[in-house]
Amino acid sequence: MAKQERDGTVAKRAYERKLCFFTDVDYALTEGVYSDPIRDISIGGVYIETLNGPYAGERVQMLFSDYSGVDLVKLSGDVVRRGENGFAVRFLCESTTELGKLKSYINNL
């Protein structure tokens, strides 16, 4: 859902989201390692579906893999929002190599 600004206009997202079907992500939090489905993903971040997500501000280490399990993308990010059905993570891409791998992963979904 788009955010409405004070002047009544609707703010657009910085990056176009891509809906995901039957795609999981493995991720690590301070209390454990999990694997849950992705609702949508963009260059800016990902929404992970789960009933017991972390709170905003927590750091997440994620591992994305293609269907063959060969092409792996490791990224970290910060939880920016927690909802009743999951949580949103903003990616922290530390290099152009990571960004390139992420773009390739998203394009192949």
Please give the number of β-strands. Answer: 7
| Gyration radius from CA atoms, angstroms | 14 Å
Binned, the helix content reads 10-25%
Largest sheet: 6 strands, antiparallel, barrel
Task: Report how far apart the termini are.
Answer: 22 Å
**Strand proportion:** 35-45%
Strand order of the largest sheet: 2-3-4-7-6-5
H/E series, N to C? EEEEEEEH
Q: Helix count?
A: 1
Average pLDDT, rounded to a whole number, is 86
The secondary structure category is mainly beta
Low-confidence runs: none
Spatial shape: globular
Supply the key terms:
1 helix, 6-stranded antiparallel beta barrel, 7 strands, mainly beta, 109 residues
Please describe what this structure looks like:
Residues 12-106 form the PilZ domain. InterPro entries: PilZ_domain. Pfam families: PilZ. The protein has 1 helix and 7 strands. The chain is mainly beta and 109 residues long. β2 (24-29) and β3 (32-41) form a beta hairpin. The chain is globular. The two termini are 22 Å apart.
Question: In summary, what is this structure?
Answer:
The chain contains one helix and seven strands. With 109 residues, the chain is mainly beta. Strand 5 and strand 6 form a beta hairpin.
Topology summary:
Layout (H helix, E strand, L loop, with lengths): L17 E2 L4 E6 L2 E10 L3 E5 L9 E7 L6 E12 L2 E6 L4 H12 L2
Antiparallel strand pairs: 1-3, 2-3, 2-5, 3-4, 4-7, 5-6, 6-7
